[in-house]
Amino acid sequence: MVFSKLANSYFDEFPFRQRKKLATSSDYFFLSHAHSDHTTGIKSVLSSQDAMIVCSKETAAVLKVLHRIPKEKCLLIDTNQSLDFDDFVIHAVDANHCLGSLMFVIESSENRKEVYTGDFRLGKPILDELELIQGADHLWVDYTYGDMPRYNFPSRKDLISEILSLMLADGNYPHKEIWIAAYQIGKEKLLKTISDALKVKIFAPEKKVQIYKEIGGGWDIFTDNPDSGICVESRRRVENLTGLDQRTEARLINSLRISPTGWAVELVSKRLDVHYFPYSDHCSFNEVNQFIELANAQEITKI
Ligand SMILES: [Zn+2]
C-alpha cells in the first residue's frame, strides 16, 4: 500500500510487472502481517534471488503455509527489535492486531522518521512504545473506522467475557455446537481464551490448523476433529451459510452462530439468527483519532 521514500522499500506491497519482474530495485519488502489485502503479489519475491520479506516469525509461518514462501526468503524481526540497513534503521512494534502483526518505525541516518502502522488496535504494546512513535515526519496510519463515529466499540477483553457468557448460557454449549466466524488469521485473543477456558481444541479448516501448528508455542489451539463442539469458519460460511455441503449446512443451522467483527455495529440488526459482537482487531473511531493526537506527526497519510 505504501512506498516509503525514506527506506526506498515497499511496505505491504509486492509489485510485479511483466509477470515476474519486480518493479523496484529494492531487495527488502516489509510486511506488517499476512492478511490477504496486504500480501497481493507476494509470490513475485520468489522471482528475485535477492528479494527478502522482513516480517515476524508468525507472519513467516503463515506465508509458508498459505503461499509456500520458504523460510529462507524471510528476514525475521521480533517485536521491539531493531534491524540496521544501509541508510536507515527499522524498529518493530507489536501492532496489537492479529498474531505476529507489526508496526514499523523507520529512522534515517539524517534523523528523519516515518511510522507505518499497518493494521493495528491501540493498546498497551503500542502505548508502551509511544516515545519511539511520537514526532514522526510522516505517519502512515490504518484509518479503517477513523471517520465513522458510530464505530466505537468496547475492549476485546469485555467482549470476550460477553461471548463466553453467551456460549455457556443455559441450553448452549455443550448441548449446542458453537460456530465462530473468523479469517484464517486473527481474533486469536478470543479463540485462545475460549480454547483455554473450555479445555478444547477448536475445529478449523485444514489450512488454519496447519498455520497455528507451524507457529507453535501455546498457539496450537485448532484441530481437524469435527467433534470438537467449538468450530471456526469463514464469515461467509457462518453468517450466510454459503459454500457448505448439505450436512455441514444442517449442523450450522442447529448451532449457535457467533460473528465477532467491528462491522457488527451495522450488521447486528440485519441478521437475527447470528449473534454479532463488535469485537475488532482494528482501532475504534475514538482509538485511532486518539492515536493520531498522541503520535503528533508532521504529515499524515490515512490508509
Ligand atoms: Zn489485517
Instruction: Summarize the helix and strand pattern as letters.
Output: EEEEEEHEEEEEHHEHEHEHEEHHEHEHE
**Small-molecule binders:** zinc ion
Q: Gap between N and C termini, in Å?
A: 8 Å
CATH class bucket of the largest domain? Alpha Beta
> Can you tell me the CATH superfamily of the largest domain?
Ribonuclease Z/Hydroxyacylglutathione hydrolase-like
Strand-pairing-aware structural class:
alpha/beta
Number of helices: 10
Based on the structure given, which CATH architecture of the largest domain is correct? 4-Layer Sandwich
Q: Describe the global form.
A: globular
Q: Can you walk me through this structure?
A:
The chain is of the alpha/beta class. The chain has helices at 57-67, 124-127, 130-133, 156-168, 188-198, 206-215, 235-240, 246-253, 264-267, 285-295, and strands at residues 2-4, 9-11, 16-17, 21-22, 28-30, 52-55, 74-76, 82-84, 88-94, 102-108, 113-116, 138-141, 178-181, 202-203, 222-223, 230-233, 256-260, 275-277, 299-302. It folds into two domains: 2-148 and 284-302, Ribonuclease Z/Hydroxyacylglutathione hydrolase-like (Metallo-beta-lactamase, Chain A, 4-Layer Sandwich), CATH 3.60.15.10; 156-277, 3-Layer(aba) Sandwich (Rossmann fold), CATH 3.40.50.12650. It is built from ten helices and 19 strands. Strand 9 and strand 10 form a beta hairpin. Helix 1 runs antiparallel to helix 6 and helix 4 packs across helix 5 (188-198). The longest helix has 13 residues, at 156-168. The chain is globular, with a radius of gyration of 20 Å. The model is unreliable at 17-23 (pLDDT under 50). It binds zinc ion (ZN). Zinc ion (ZN) binds at residues 33, 35, 97-98, 119.
